[in-house]
Amino acid sequence: MTEIEAKEIALKFISNHTSEHYTLHFISINRSPRNPYHWSAAFEVRPTNGGMLEGPIFVIIDEKSSEAWFFG
Prior knowledge:
Blueprint: H1 3-15, E1 22-31, E2 38-47, E3 57-62, E4 68-71
Antiparallel strand pairs: 1-2, 2-3, 3-4
């Protein structure tokens, strides 16, 4: 799986988990330091009333199954 493919899966996952209270904005994607078959995508959390929540949220992408989930 390429970085571009992993990012597309993460963005699709995020688009299926929208909220009226916040939006998620892509920051970066890297191979997970703990599992060579996982990608880790970071997203900034912004409340709809402005500002930014503390810390990013991460989405893990499994290279073998193409599944994604929230981490943390």
